[in-house]
Amino acid sequence: MTARGAADGRLQDPQYADLVAGLNCIVWEADARSFQMTFVSEAAERMLGYAPAQWLQQDFWESKLHPEDRHRVVASCRESAAALRTNTLEYRMIAGDGRVVWLRDHVTVVGEHGEPRTLRGIVVDITDERRAHEERAEHIHFLEVKDRVNRAIQSNQDLDAMMREVLDVVLVAFAADRAWLGQPCDPDGGRWICEMERTRPEYPGAGARGEPVPIAGDVRDLFLAVCRAEVPVAFGRGAPQPVPGFLADGYQVQAVLAMTVRPHEAPPYMFGLHQCSHDRCWTPAEVRLFEAVGHRLSDALSLLHLHRRLRDSEARFRVLVDHATDAIFLHAADGTVIDANRQGCVSLGLPRETLIGMSPHDFDAGPSVQTTPGCVTDRLNAGETITLDTLHRRADGSTFPVEVRIRPFYENGKRYSVSMARDTTERRRLEQQFLQAQKMEAVGRLAGGLAHDFNNLLTVVNGCSELIVARLAAGDASRPLAQEILHAGERAAQLTRQLLAFSRRQVLHPGVVDLDRCLADLGGLLRRLLGEHIELRLDGCCSGGSARVDPVQFEQAIVNLAVNARDAMPDGGALTISTRMVTVGSGASAALGGLLPGRYVVVAVQDGGVGMDAGTRARIFEPFFSTKPAGKGTGLGLAMVYGFVRQSGGHVEVHSEPGCGAVFELYLPETDGEVQLPRPQGHAARTARGTETVLLVEDDLAVRSLTRTLLAEQGYRVLEAHDGEDGLRVARRHTGPIDLLITDLVMPHLGGWRRCWRASGRSCACC
Amino acid sequence: MTGYAADADDVGDLPMLRKPFAQAALFDKVREVLEGAPPVFAAP
User: Fold this and answer.
1) pLDDT band at A148 (very low <50, low <70, confident <90, very high)
2) Which among A86, A55, A90, A94 is positioned nearest to A72, based on CA atoms?
3) Do B39 and A737 touch (CB under 8 A)?
4) Would you tell me which of A21, A102, A151, A449 could form a disulfide with A42, CB atoms 3.0–4.6 Å apart?
5) A762 vs B5, B27, B38: nearest CB
6) Taking a C-beta distance cutoff of 8 angstroms, is the pair A601, A554 a contact?
7) What residues of chain B lie within 8 A of the CB of A707, using their CB?
8) How crowded is residue A234: how many other Cβ atoms within 10 Å of its Cβ?
9) What pLDDT score does A33 carry?
10) Are A496 and A533 in contact (CB under 8 A)?
11) Which H/E stretch holds residue A94?
């Protein structure tokens, strides 16, 4: 069926008419002024569902044009008709079943006398072509946006910068008015902070205003909907949910597209778009693109959060490693340093940049490492952990002892090692100090034991010599010989007393002594001892402190130090003795020979003599060690000082360098007890005789025999016992009173006697 | 060395005679101790 107006006579030809009707395009003819169709081929009904007769109605064609295209198409047709110019138009028409059909219309204008008379056209259906084109364009847009987002993500390691750039891309790609990202994405979060926002200038959002958004009412409903969904959720026209009133009123929002972005191991974000300028309906393609951007953003945020955690973790580990007191080095398989902690740099005096790349042989000055460099590598390759004592060399060339522990480990198939070097200077000093103390203790025990036995022998030698001298006539030729024996015995006794003092087995009579007064009283004796060429200064003796010491031994110690100072200043000088109070804390205890924490009176004896080197300083307290010429010193003076001070709970510090004199500091425990005056001396006359009964307990037969003889000659009745238990037996058997107990102190089986001599005022001890 | 008394704590204020002692020191110390103090062991 064809529609026919005032058309060409050829269309009356059946053969021609069949040809036109069979074409898969619409052939038409219309009046050039009114656009009134005069002919439409049958394809018009197949293509658009309208019968040809309908097309011939006035304004039918124009009425079925798509409203968005109508104005453009009619205007274009008028223009081409007026200009007698052919025209090709693409436009949409609404089909009879409501479909939108894309058409390409090729229009020619037939004129007469220069005026348009008839329009003729051929229309083809390009709907599929247009759809394919739109899909291709949409896909290209999708890829372009994703590419721009990827580039924004990859070009930024900083979280804020990355979010800012991605939102800039999104804002443009979606032609939105706001793109934003914030936390918490939680309906129960109370309020929402817009962490990053990009907007058109005329639509500043919550981020630009710097105000949190309360998550309440219909805003909470929005959060609930977005958080529950796995895909973007639209609000506004064409969406199931309207824009929340809070956003519409407060922020001019007319359409929202939002989704949850869930980075790994980080709180989720709310990601969204606002359209404020118009009422927008988000297309499926836009929603798909938005979702893709959201997922990419989620991956990027995961990575950045991971980087941030790694960076924070590394910073924490760096702090941990840099605050270690040991030097820590990381080595490659060939030993090259590839990292070092702060202490490693400090200990070697090198900046990290210099240290990295160095070989351990560049700073390890230990002889074994230098001579057998391959050994360490071989052992590490075998998986062995190595501990070695070696030396490290600082940048200035000085060396210090270290204990190095090297442990191999593997990472990505490569062997590395970590070495920890501990400076052992202080430990070695303490070890030396401990060894020295042990040696002194051992020597002291030996010396003390010998001194005790020698004292017993000397008691007999001297006692018998005294008896011989007393019994020989004044002119007897043997008398000077006996006196020489006696003098030698007395010198030997002096030596044994010094030995006992050093060995700390000297029996002390400690009392509360005002050290300042004691030193002042000693001044006269010291000046005579020092001689006129040495000035004695006691001005600094003003600590006001008292110590619980044996005053006799204290004086002896000061005298010994003064004698040494005198010998160290043969050309004269000054000896300064001063006192001060110090408080020793637990931290300083180790450096002061293990002194108990507390308050001490320090007596400093300083000379300006020749001083001592380190080797001499290390040995000065050893008994029989002397720097004086043979026959000038016994080597026991300082040993006595050391023993006495240690036995009194104190410590001796020595500071000296060759040519710089020496300072001996005696740390003596302070006490606040009442100062005791010296015990009055006995008044008994040398020849005083007695008749009392004396119990003599002495394990040395010769000493006991001599003492018994001496006492008996003076008229005393003497009961003898060879040890403590024997003494008790003798006392039980004796029927009369026992007026006095004389007992050796260093003797077996004395336990029970301690109570006796403490309970009675009539006990006298010997040692 | 168990059973030996050899340090200051064991002795306290006990009158001391340091070996080797001279006769005079022995006699002086004996008289000094005996004066005024009660006997060690009274007669039964």
Assistant:
1) very high
2) A90
3) yes
4) A21
5) B38
6) no
7) 26
8) 23
9) 87
10) no
11) strand A87-94
Residue type, A177: D
Which tens digit of pLDDT belongs to each residue from A127-138? 999 999 989 998
Q: Is the pLDDT of residue B11 over 60?
A: no
What average pLDDT does the segment A694-698 reach?
A: 90
CA–CA distance, A208 with A194 (Å, rounded to integer): 9
Asked if A268 and A277 count as a contact pair (C-beta separation under 8 A), the reply is no
What span, in angstroms and rounded, lies between the C-alpha atoms of A244 and A256?
A: 9
pLDDT band at A374 (very low <50, low <70, confident <90, very high): low
State the pLDDT confidence band at A351, using cuts at 50, 70 and 90.
very high
Instruction: For residue A753, give every residue at least 6 positions away whose Cβ sits within 8 Å of its Cβ, in sequence order, or none.
Output: A697, A724, A727, A728, A741, A743
Contacts of B23 in chain A (CB under 8 A): 463, 466-467, 470, 710
Q: Which residue in the set B16, B23, B31 is minimally distant from A690, CB to CB?
A: B31
CB A27 within 8 A of CB A122: yes
- Percent residues over pLDDT 90 in chain A: 45
Q: Which residue is listed with tokens 């979060």? A: A189
pLDDT at B3 over 60: no
What band does A75 get if pLDDT is binned at 50, 70 and 90? very high
CA distance A426 to A407: 24
Supply the DSSP symbol for A238. Answer: T
Cβ distance A686 to B19 less than 8 Å, yes or no, reads no
Lowest mean pLDDT among A130-134, A237-241, A328-332: A237-241
B9/A contact by beta carbon, under 8 A:
no
Q: Which long-range contacts (CB under 8 A, 24 or more apart) does A729-732 make?
A: A730/A695, A731/A695, A731/B40, A731/B41
**Rounded alpha-carbon distances, angstroms, from residue A687 to A333, A364, A690, A715, B13:** 91, 78, 10, 11, 26
Separation between Cα atoms, residue A192 and residue A183, nearest integer Å: 6
**B28: contact with A, CB 8 A cutoff:** yes
DSSP, collapsed to helix, strand or coil, labels residue A274 as strand
For A474, residues 6+ apart whose C-beta sits below 8 A from its C-beta are none
Alpha-carbon span A253 to A272, nearest angstrom: 12
How far are the Cα atoms of A471, A489, A648, B22 from residue A479, in angstroms, in the given order? 9, 15, 42, 17
For A458, the closest of B7, B13, B20 (CB atoms) is B20
From chain A, the residues in CB contact with B28 under 8 A are: 681-682, 684, 686, 688
Q: Three-class SS of residue A27?
A: strand
A432: DSSP letter: H
Name the residue with tokens 């110690």: A557
Q: What is the pLDDT of residues A634-689, one digit of tens each?
A: 677 888 888 889 888 899 999 999 888 999 999 999 988 777 655 444 444 445 68
Tell me if B29 and A767 make a contact (CB, 8 A cut-off).
no
Q: What is the DSSP letter of A193?
A: E
Which of B3, B14, B44 has the CB atom closest to A750's CB atom? Answer: B3
* C-beta separation of A193 from A183 below 8 A: yes
Q: Does the beta-carbon distance from B17 to A766 stay under 8 Å?
A: yes
Query: Phi then psi for A2, rounded to 5 degrees?
Result: -125, 155
Please report, as a single letter, which amino acid is at residue A141: H
Q: How many CB pairs under 8 A join A and B?
A: 167
* pTM for the model: 0.47
Interface of A with B in 491-530 (CB under 8 A): 493, 497, 504-505, 507-510
Show Cβ contacts of residue A445 under 8 Å, excluding neighbours closer than 6 positions. A503
Q: How far apart are CA B15 and CA B21, in angstroms?
A: 13
CA–CA distance, A740 with A24 (Å, rounded to integer)? 152
Contacts of A456 in chain B (CB under 8 A): 19
Residue-level pLDDT at A629: 65
